[in-house]
Structures are given as structure tokens and as C-alpha cells.
Amino acid sequence: MLSLGSGGAKSTKPSFVSYVTPEEIKSEKDPSKQEKHPDLLPGEVEFCSANPILKYTQDDLSQRGVFGTLFCTNFRVTFISDERPLEKKAKTFKNKLYGENDIPLMCVDHIYGVYEEKRKPITGALVKNKNPSKMIIHCKDLRVFQFCLTYSKEEDARKIFQGIAHHCLEEKSLKCVFAFSYMGTPSPSPEMPRKQETIMFDSPEDWTREMKRTKANCRLVIENENFELSQRLPKYFVIPLAIGDLFSYQGKGLPIWCWSHYSGCALFKASFLPVTQEDGDFQKHLDTMINAVAHNHLYSVKTEDLSESLPNIQDIQQSYNKFKQFFLIENSTDFWLSDVKWFSSIESSGWLDIIRQCLQKAVEVVECLEKDNTNVLITEEEGTDLCCVISSLAQIMLDPYYRTLMGFQSLVQKEWVAGCHAFLDRCNRLHLKDKECHSPVFLLFLECVWQLVQQHSPAFQFSETYLTVLSDSVHVPIFSTFLFNSAHHRENIMKAESPLAQSGPLSCPTVWDWSVQFDSKAQNFFFNPLYLEKVKHDRAVRKPHKPKHQRHLSLPSSAFKTPLKKGFFKDEADSLKKMLRVKRLSRWRGSPDAPAATTREFYESWQNRPLDYHGLLLPYLDGPAVRVWMQRYLRWIPEVYILGGGSMAVMTKLMELQNQVQDLKRALEQRDPSQAAELDHRPYLQQRLLSFDSSGRLSSSFPFAYTRSRNFKPSIPIALMQSLMLTDSLACQEDEASSVVSFV
Amino acid sequence: MMSHSSLHAHGRDVFGLCCLPGECVLQRAVLVRKKLSAKEGGGWLSGTLFCTHFRVAFVPQDSQKPDDNADPVLLGDHDVALASIDKVVAVGPSRTKLVTPTCSLKFTPEELVLYCRDLRVLCFLFDRLTPDTQALEITYTIAKTYQPLKPGTILSFQNAALGSIEMKQFLSNRWHDPNMNWFECSMGWEQELERTGASGWRVSSVNDRFEMSTSLPRFSVVPQRVLDTELKKTFAHFNEGRIPRWCWRHPHGSDLLRMASFQNNIYHEKDDIRNLESVLFGGQQLCVIVDLGEEMPSPADIQLAHTRLRTLCLGDISSSVSVPDDKWLSTLESTRWLDYTRCCLRKAAEVACLLGGGHMTVVLQEPEDRDMNCVVCGLVQVMCDPHCRTVPGFQGLVQKEWITAGHKFLSRINYHRESDKEEAPVFLLFLDCVWQLWAQYPTRFQLTEDYLLALHDSVHLPLFSSFLANSQRERCRRSQHLPQSYTPVNGLRELPKGAPEEPVDPPFPPVWDWALQYSSLRRSRFTQPVSQPACPPPVLNGNLNTNQDHGWPNDGLPGSVFLLSRGTFSHPSNLLPWRSGNSGSYWKSHRRAPSSESLSGLERLIRACSLSEPSENPSTLHDPYEPLLPLLLGPCVRVWRACYLRGALHAQAFSHPASSCSQHPLDQLAWEVQQLREKVAQASHRHPENQTKRQEPLRLESNLNQNANNGTFLFSSSSRTSQQQPSSRGAAHSSVIPKAQRTASDPPRPVQRNNGKHTFLFGHQQEPQSGLRYIPSPSAKLHKRPGNSY
């Protein structure tokens, strides 16, 4: 019962005692079987099913479980319990698309089969072998499911196991993704009005508006509307004014505008291939590009090759794989064991360090924009991975607009979706064998944002729950947002698909249409009750710095680890120097640790100003400041639920308080609209959250954990539990003695 | 307060610094800027820096002129006492130097960094306009006068602070806070017995003159049926005479006791045995001895861990080296500090579960009974007793389990640098454990992190009687206070007036006199903006025990004893020395074997407690006595950032963001509510016909809230918010803005004082007036209706 070894493997002899044989269960359940069908989404098709399947409750040492039916559809793997749910409480935070026992096919990370006490990862080859007795599914949102297949009929079990393995793990074409079936159904769920507020950046107007908002002085390129320039470039994009010739090199090295600082300098990103010396023409082309960037503002530019200074996407993938293992808990024993070396094992995965490096890099970029007012050009081979991370982070730090919910969604849309991040490849949607291109880059970005959110929570309109939900939604194969590799890819696929749907232009829901997943009540959890609205007179606090009128040329310094062997940056610097006749800035020439020192200086000068939540925001990067995203990683582990405690308890109370404020405002509005107007600056929460009160005490993993499956574990750790078991036997030994005593 | 007029003359104002009586300014530097932490708002504050022979004081430029009539305050908000300074570092144009009393600087410091023993780091920046000599001189002066690690210097420091006649007089007239239990007289203990509903116990003054045990307090609680004469015989059987003493009763009817280890080489007379048994069992039939000797960290371990933690958090000051960020977590792990925290919490959680069973005595045993017993005993009560999570309750707890119980504060803190071997921050470990509980259940505490932090910092200030003695006996001696002249009427300390010449030591105030150290603004942050805890009435004889059948066999015979050690229950034969071996004739004659029924019962009990699902069971859902069981897994135990990391070497850590329930959003929301209320009030004044319509939804909501929040502290009724002034902690705001608003709407009225009690943001139901900071306008009165309707 209390096997301390690697618990998952030693489970062939479950101590669960079934008082009925499987046959009995079968006959018993047969009549009701017809009713047990999952509520299919429009377009969802059931592939296969098996009954009875035992689903282990994850958190219990005793291998207990629930009997039910396991289905596999073209959207998800779902388990329906035989037990009638006891007067189900309406959950406050319920996903409309999938429930607690559903796993969208895309969300499946790994499947393991337990063969004679040995856990083996399932690959295509193993599927043909005999059935495992137990199937363990690890999800990408870190849930773990364990199903026992031995109780159902041999062929049923085989069918369901192979079906699941096939649909989850085999390579498949994009057309098979559920989004296309879902979309194709005649009545996709009622009217999906696109949220007006989220700017989609799929029209020239959106870009023009964004340029106007940031006062950018750049040029909108619409020549790529039909992807004639390059298939890797967005449909519309913005480039420095000085670039004349667009059509060379398929847009390679083309600096794409991201954001403009109020001083006039701007952030650009580009895909730069590492260039060899011989390739003179291309070299020249790049020089022109860099010069064009420099022309944007004050003839200054700072280039930054991210592939040199940050871990590459494989490193990120490896590190994340290591990291997530600590949270994929098959049974509590494993978790107790991992506890001993908790901090050092977290550290050894290196994931937190990668987060720190990304934030650090973003701070450096911010420093150039904010303090030196130089243009910044970040480059990378593809220009769509780490470039997106760094540019988005820098924008969040600099621009309070992106810290609102709508602003953040627009930012993701701008940098990631329109910016052609290869979501399809990076998330391994199609289970391609080619492991090279999988990498949780977007998750890394969300992690970094979470660090900012938890460090400066009043500055963000959205909550960590929002980020967690967003990180889950990446794996729900319904949304067009995360389904494609580039704008061209999207256009192509959508065009090819559109004849199927007769109703004009095809629109598959974007993830920003949260009503597809959550009702308005649940969406309230996306808002941070602590968000500090902008007050009008705030402006005076931080006056924009006077733009310095000295010309800068910041060279990529050794901190940015541009080795000389490349020769590339050196030449660029020289040519620039010749052309612009500017001086090097002395501090960039300094000793290797000089940049760190200046960054620190920058930090300190930022800290010396009073913290303004609507101004520049920098993350803290030292050891204790970068933390584990508890809500995302620990939400399914009952051992760490704090019942009635945690930050959630405070948070919900605050939300209540905020609701009250809104009530009052509404009341005031009725009575005296003139006064109300000046106060009304808080996002309006659609519905009151009365359900808080009825649900009694919340655990710290609210709103994700399901109270029903929660099993309050001993706060007294394992030693005591063990001893209880020991005393059990002790008590048995002393039975004789007690029989004597009981007469006394 | 009697003779304040005599003091007024002595609140001297020197260059804007309000000096203590007798305090002289040694050096002063103008145009200095002080770095503010994030909690203080970040950025810099300019003003004047002073060094007196008691403290380093900083007076902000635009600070209000000190009120001459105010009580003398030892330390202002920006001050630091010389005794809590650990290191002085001067930062020059290109280098930093650790300044010692003897060294000389070869450069003019631009920045002065003071590293404090309590892990604060204060940073002062000299302006270019600060005269060089001033900058140099004040650095030297501080370096020379701060307390180097030399025995004896502490006394001059104390005298500097408290030695003046005015100060002595002032202190002698301070009242003990009547809201908390001081446990210094038998009344205190009787109150505690009454509060917890314990019966069968009495307060014994057998140790009144410290004749039985020098380390025990003068009063202890023992079973009623044991007479003093019988009791006297038991002292010899315990190490240092620390007999089993009652500490607390769980509402389910169990009693918590603590004792030192048994003296083994002593003959047990038959009478002795009877007395020992009754002392141990109280009125119960089952006794579980919890051994805190072996698996808990030793004081040396704690000291080592704390030193390491300190180095990790502050870095190596002299060489400016800190742990690289990517190795921070593993280094933290290797300090083992968190392991020790966990260890204590775990033990306390076990005991808390055990006590929940009812009808037994749980006796904490430690060889000395002066370290871990204090920690665990205190933690158990914080977990189980909501009263101990309020400020007065917690102070009472520390008085009871630490100060009067004889924790060796003086040796453990090692103020005099005379007991290096014994130095160990056991009390700080306890505070860290309480903080862990607070961090996991912030809404169930009335006290706040700020309070714990204040207590943490005060430990490093050698000015308080609470920490300046190893036992109650020393404390009594010091105050020249003979036990027989003690009048336990109202806990007043009566210092002989007009005869203060002979004591060498100045009269030390207790640490609980917070007004001496903290401004009212900061004191208001000691409590959550909550209602007074609704303390459930005491339950006599454990009537609350709705638990499973715990009819422990009650046959008038001596009961069973079990040992809980390493998480295991057992019954070793030599557990009670008098029951074992050859002296066990008494035992044999009664033919009692340990009842395994009880054993399995115990085990069932812990299992029930730990496995039950409280939320499934509506009766226990809001049981205020439901223990706060901390989660102790790796990700749940955290570093107390606000304490250990506030002065980290890394500049960034200066402004670590406040924790999740940081104050200003809360204040802001509360403000908003307040503003809106007033506006609604104004508006409804104009349109009174709308009045009733608008009341309806609110009433509904407030009722709901009230039902749901019975057992929790924070926001116990959100409807009350409406009528309350937002915050007492935001006193700075409330002193300014409401006035403005009031003058706008109706004539200013005197602020209503509520007889010395704290005001809370969300006051409690029964006394709607008590929390009010302002008198509502006639129109606002109408809004009280929902509040009064239930």
C-alpha cells in the first residue's frame, strides 16, 4: 500500500478491492450503457469506446478509482463515470468545451502503458503489441490520467487503446485537426462576434492605427498581400522609411517594425541568417537594412543577435521537459519523494534560468530604447521565435497599454499570430517525427509575463488565471489563433477549406472569443481585482525624458556575445561609423562586465524613481525573485492545495469588494450620471460572483481544482502516515492484551 | 498618564531632531538622501542625517515639526538604533570600504550603507552639496559609536536610551496594555483557564519565590487535586524542576502540557508516584508524551542555518560577493533553514491533530523544556486557537510560552557577546514558522506580516525587558521588584517612585509597548483591516467534542501513556521511569497494560483528522477551531522575503514587491467604496425617493456574506465596509482627505475616539459605532439600515 519506490510502476497489484467481478459490473451496467454518451460538440464524431474502465483517482495511494466508459472522439478522449454525479454543483469556472475528464487530443503529451509492472512510453511500434494493463496519459496542461484497461473486454480494450494511441500520437495531416470539422458544421455555436477590442492586425487599418498610437514614422508594406514577397513574412508589415528596395532576398533581413518609443526610436526585428564573409552581396544588403533602421531616429542603432545570447529552441524544449516532470505526478508517493530535493531539482532543470535570461535580455532592449533612445534591431535566424518573446516582453515593460487585457491580446496577435510564429510546428500539433522544431516558446513568453504579473500585480489588468487559461487554450484544437505556421499558411489552408463551408468567408473562432470556452461569469476571473487604473493627473509623474541630442552608436558589445569570428557585426559597425561619422559610446567599449554594470545602473535609476504602474516596469531578476508559476504547475496536485488559504482567498474577497464598488457605481449612475462619469474607469464585470459564498471554502488552486475529486491529504507528511500503518500492525499484535483489558 | 507635564520640557528639539531626554547629537550631515524600500514607496527621501549616542536618525526635509507634548519615542520611522547596526560600509567614487572604529577613509564617501543585525540595510546618499567634512565625520562617528562586538558596551547604549531620569519616570508610568494577558500574576493564568474553558486545573503559587525552580515562572497551572505540599515533592523528579505544567486546553477537551525530561537517578516513593501520575494526567485517562528531544533541530543547528541564510540573503558584505542567481535555490536548500521550519511546523501539526481528539493530555517533553517546547507549544496554539492569531492574543502567547516560561532569550540572542556557544535564534525560527502559517492562510490571521516583522526587528534591540533575561526570576530581580510587594490587581508594574538611584540598569520597557518604537501609522499596519475576531465562547469540559466516540476507558485507574516520537506511537516500558523496572511494583499491582484500544483509537484519530474532508462536512466547515494545518511540501514552504530579503546585496531586491495582499490596492478599493458611498449619499439626499429602492440588493448581499464568513477574519462582513472609513492603516490619507470631503458636504465634526481600541477597516457587527472614524452625515445615516437590520 505504501510502496515507497517509484510508485507508478509497482501498481499491478492494486489494493483496490472490487467486491463485484468485472462480469457482474458489465451485466449491471449494460442497460444504462446507451445513455452514457458524451455531449458531442458540433462536428464531433465518436470513434470508439470501452466499458468498464477504471479511472484511478490520482491523488490516492490506495489505487482506488471510478468505473466508467472511455471514449475517443475526433476532438478528445473522454471518460464518463458510471456513478451518478451527486447533485452536481454548478462550477464557477467551467470550460464549455471540455470538462475535467476530457482530454483534447492535442493536449495529450505522452502516453505510457504499464506492462507487467513496467512503465513504457507508447510509440507507434508498441501499439501493435499486446494491451497494457494500465494506460497513463500525461497532458500538456499537466494533468495526469490513469486508466485501468483490464476490466473491460479484451477487444474493447485493444480498440480503445489503439484508437487513443493512434489519434494522439500518430503523424497526421492538418486537415484532421478538429478545428476543421468543428468549423465545417452548419451551425457553429451561436454567432461568434469577434471581440471588437482585440486588434487582429490582419488589415492595413489595424497597422496604421497602431503606428498612429505609438507615433511611429514608418512605412506600411502592403505589397505582400498575396505573399509575393515572401511566404514567411506577414501579410502586412511595417518597415523603416528608408528602405526602398523590397524585393531582394525574399525579405530576408528585412527589419520589421515592432513598436516605437515616444522619443522616436523604435524596436525592429528581423530574420538574419548567419552570413559568411564571401557572401558579399547579401552582406551589403544587410548593411543597407541596418542603415535604414538607423535612419529611423537619430542615426543610432543597436543590433542584437538573439541566437547568440539566448538558449536555442532545443535547449528550451529540453529544459522544459525536465522541469515539467516534477509536476506530472502519477501518485503522491512520487511527489513526497521529490520533496526532499525540491529546490535543487527545480534549479537543475534550468527552466527558471531561461526565464531569467529572457527577461534580462528584454531589460537590455528596454534600456536601449528608454535610456539611450537608440533604435534596436533584434535578429534571429527565423525571426519568429525568440524575437517574438523579447520584443513582446519589451513592449509590455514599456507600454502600459499592453498590460490591459485587450492590449495584451492585441500584442499576441501582433507579434505572434500576425508575426508568423510557427505555432503548428512548435507545439507539435501533428505529431511529426521531426523533433527539432518543437519548443514551448509561447509558453516561455507566458512564463515571463507571469513573472512580471506576480511582481507587479497592480500594473496588469489581467490575472494569472487568465495566463494559465491562455496557456491551456494553446492545446485546444478549435481556435485558429494557434493552428498555423504563418500568415501564408493560414491563408492557404483557409482558402482550401472554404468551399466546404458555403457561408462566405470562413471564420474559425479565435481564442480571444472567450465565450466559446467560458461563460461571462467565469470570465470575471480573467480580471485582476488589484489592477490600478490610470488616473488622469498621473501624467505629470513621469515626464518623458528629453531626447538626447548627442548621436549614439551603440555597438554590440561583448555582453551581447557577438564573437569576432562572425565578422559580421564588426563590419556593420565600421561601415556605419564611416557613414554616420559618429563616435562610439565609451561604455560599450569597456570591460566585459561593463554592460552588466550599466544595466544595473539603469535598474537603479529606475528604482530611484517612485514606482509608477503606468510607466516603465522592470522585472526583478535575482535568485529569489524568479519563481515557479504555482497556479499552472501545481493546480492538479492535491497535496499542495491549501484549503481556505492561499492568495486566492484574499483575491476572491477583493473581487467581492470590487463588485460592491461596481454596484455602488451603478447606483450612483442612476442617480447622478454626471458624477459617475468621472469615476468610471474600471472594466465592467458582467456578473456578480455570488457563487463564492455558496461554494464555501476555496482551496488555493481555485478555480482549477475540482472540489469533488479533491481528497484532503494529511498535512502530516509521510513519516506519520507510515507510522500509522505500523501502529496498525502493532495494534494487531497487541490484540491479545487488549482482549484482556476490555474486560476490565 | 500622570506626570506628562514634567516631560514636555525635555522633548528637546535639536536641529529638527526630537531628541530623547538626555540624548545628544554627536554629528549631523545635511542634504542626505535616504533610499526608500518598495514598501515605503521606493525612490529617495532627502533630509538630514544625525548620529546620536543612541541612534542614527534621519529627519526628512518636510517632516512636520515634532509635537513637544508627544511622548518620547525611541525610534522614528527612519531611524535605526546603534545597537542594531552590524556593519558600516562607505561607498566612494570607485570603491567600497567596510568602516571599523579604527580605520580611516582615504576618500569622501558618497554613500553610506548600514547593515543591520535584523537584516535591514539602510542606504544614505550624500549630496554633492553635503560638506565633505560632514560626510566623513558622520561616517567616522557612526563607526566609532555603534556597538562593536564587545561585552559591556551594551550597557552604555541602554543607558543612553533609557538612563535619563525623565525617561525612567516616563517608563515607570507606562501602563501595561490591559488588552493582553501578561501571565505575570495568577490572575492572568486564571483568565486563561477561564478563556479556554479548562476545568480541573488551578493556579499554584508554589514557586512564588523561585524556590522550587529558578527557571519556572512564579505561577504554574497544575491539576486541582494536587495539593501544593504534594506538588513540591514532584519538582525533584524533573530536570531543573520543570514539572509538567498546563499550557492550553483544546476546545475538544484535551489539555496541552509541557515539561522537562525526567530525573532518572531518583528513588520514587509511592506517594511521589501518585502525585507524578496525577500531575501528568490531569483529569484525563490518556496521556501522550511528545518527545521533542531528538528529531528537532538543536540550537546549534538553528544557529548554523541562520548564519548561512543570512549570508545567502545579504551576501558577503566585505567582499561584495553574492550567490549567483542560478544557484540561489540550491543554496537556499543547503542552508537547511526551511527544513527546520518545516520540522517544527510538522511536529506542531501532529500535536494539533492529536489534541483534536479530545480527552487526553498531550505533554511536550524536551530535556531542557526551554527551546523547542516553546516553539511547538506556541505553534500548536497559533494553529488551533483563533485568539492567538490576533495581536493581543499572540502577545499573550509569547508571554505565556516564551517569556515567563523561561526561554533563555539573553543567552540565545547573545546581546552581550558572552554566550557565543549558546547563541541560537530559536525565537526567530518560531516567528518564521508563524509567518509560514500566515502566508498560507492570510485571511485567518488578524495580525499581519508587518507585526511579525516588527517583533523580529525588536529582538535585535537590547532594550526590552522581555528579551533581556533568561528567566522570569532574573527579570523580577532586575526590576528591583520583590515578589511579595507585587499587587496583582491590574497587572500594573509598580516601580518604586523616586528611588531610582541604585539600580545600574535602567528600567526596561516590555517589547509590547509598541508606541515606543513605531509611529501610529506603522502600528496601524500591525492588524488586518478586519473585524474583531468573534471568539467563540469557551466550552467547559470539552462539550464541543462532537467528534467520534472518544470514551477513553474511565475506570479511575491510572491511564495509559504513549510516546509520540518520530511520528510513531509506541509504548516503551521505560517511558515513565517510575512505572518501569523494579520500581514498578505499584504498576504491577494494578495489572494495567497499555490499552491497545486507546492506541488504535489514537491512530484512528490522527487519520480521521488528516483524511477528513472538512468542506464536505457542513458542521466543521466554519469551525473556528479547525486547526490551520500548514502544507509542508517543497513548493509550499517559502522564504520570508519581506524579512530576509529586504536588504539583499543585490540592488534590485531593495524594492521587492509586496506580497499578494499588498496594501495599496486594498486601500484604494476601500477608498473607492467610501467615496462612492458618500456620493451616493449626496445624490440620494437630493432624491430621497430613490432611497428605499437602492437598499434592497445590498441587504441581500450582506446577509449572504455574513452567513458565509463566520469563521474567517478578513472582511468578515463586506457590507460593513460601506459604513466604515476605509482604513485605519491609511491614517495618512484619512487624516487629510476625509476632512476635505467632510467640509464639502457638511460641517466638520470631531473624530470619534473609541476608547483605546484599534479601529479596523471592516468593523464588526455588534458595535457599529466602535469602528467609525467619522460621524456620518444625516443622509448617510439612512444607509446604516442594512447594517442594523440583522
From TrEMBL, chain A:
GO terms for cellular component: membrane; sarcomere; sarcoplasmic reticulum. GO terms for biological process: phosphatidylinositol dephosphorylation. Gene3D superfamilies: Pleckstrin-homology domain (PH domain)/Phosphotyrosine-binding domain (PTB). It holds the Pfam family 3-PAP. It is found in: Cytoplasm, Myofibril, Sarcomere; Sarcoplasmic reticulum. SUPFAM superfamilies: (Phosphotyrosine protein) phosphatases II (SSF52799), PH domain-like (SSF50729). InterPro entries: MTMR12-like_C, Myotubularin, Myotubularin-like_Pase_dom, PH-like_dom_sf, Prot-tyrosine_phosphatase-like. Residues 201-560 form the Myotubularin phosphatase domain. Keywords: Cytoplasm, Sarcoplasmic reticulum. PANTHER family: MYOTUBULARIN-RELATED (PTHR10807), MYOTUBULARIN-RELATED PROTEIN 12 (PTHR10807:SF37). Belongs to the protein-tyrosine phosphatase family. Non-receptor class myotubularin subfamily. This is Myotubularin-related protein 12. It comes from Carassius auratus. The lineage of its organism: Eukaryota, Metazoa, Chordata, Craniata, Vertebrata.
UniProtKB/TrEMBL annotation, chain B:
InterPro entries: MTMR12-like_C, Myotubularin, Myotubularin-like_Pase_dom, Prot-tyrosine_phosphatase-like. One of its GO terms (cellular component) is membrane. Residues 680-699, 707-790 are annotated as: Disordered. Pfam families: 3-PAP (PF12578), Myotub-related (PF06602). GO terms for biological process: phosphatidylinositol dephosphorylation. Residues 183-644 form the Myotubularin phosphatase domain. Residues 716-728 have a biased composition (Low complexity). Residues 781-790 have a biased composition (Basic residues). PANTHER family: MYOTUBULARIN-RELATED, MYOTUBULARIN-RELATED PROTEIN 11. Belongs to the protein-tyrosine phosphatase family. Non-receptor class myotubularin subfamily. This is Myotubularin-related protein 11-like isoform X2. The lineage of its organism: Eukaryota, Metazoa, Chordata, Craniata, Vertebrata. The gene is LOC113059269.
